[in-house]
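Lay summary. Proteins are chains of building blocks that fold into shapes, and those shapes determine what they do. In this project we predict the shape from the chain. Here is one chain we studied, written as its sequence of building blocks.
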Amino acid sequence: MRSATQGAASTEAQPDLRARRRAARRAENRTEILDAAEQVFGEHGVHAGSLRQVALQSGFSAAAIYLFFENKQDLLRETLTRRGDELVAALRTVAEEDLAPLGKLHRIVDVTVAFFEAHPDFRRLIRHITGGPAIVGPALAEWAGEADGQFMAAMTLIAGIVGDGQEAGEVRDGGAHAIAHLYSVLINEHVLLAAADESGVGTLTPEQFHELIDGALRKPGTPTPKLARGGQSLYPGSPSNSTVASWLATGRPTVSHSDTASRTSSALLGVPAPAQSSSPT
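And here is the predicted shape, written in a compact code that computers can read:
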């Protein structure tokens, strides 16, 4: 038979357990609404996408959505901020990896591509905000108050990698922040142009884009490696979408060279770069 003390402890624990379950359900419901919002705004655009459509997509009533978000602007802001947080967190992970600076910059390229392939609705949403295949920093900042800080944090991290590369004699001379900004512009343009069904401009293969990045960043006069011994790329395979999702869930990359989407580069994550936009109605 349980003692009185044990019974009291069990009784006290029950409300705490119920509170945790309610919090977990609320977090799950919020995530489902954000997923639906990302799909609706990605498909219909910021102005045409409505809370009613989000409610239908998520399975919640419009009234229930207001229990989680103040209005459409708040829902859109949180939709963008969620992905921005994921991008910056992954960028910090890559910055801490035991790689040469130029290797880190190549790693950033492929995860950016894989990330947006894993989140096609978010990529379409970005295109709606920028009005086409354009760069996206302040465009996000106008919708999400935290986005400008995220962009600056990402630029600071990339500029730090560029600076390390300059000290190591790998990366060309010039302002580290300026090079970081131009580098992020190239990545974002490549990501948005890669949506072949949304752009008639065409795009580069992963290998071609890495060669472009390498040529833009590598210090003139230093060797420009393409293939390692045996014909394998010096930038080993990029991860699959499921691997990127795993990274985002765990906060650390756990990819083997056999888990590849191509044989051109390993991956980690990129950042939005600036553009102009207008407010939703």
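What the prediction tells us: Confidence is low (pLDDT under 50) at residues 133-139, 227-245, 247-281.
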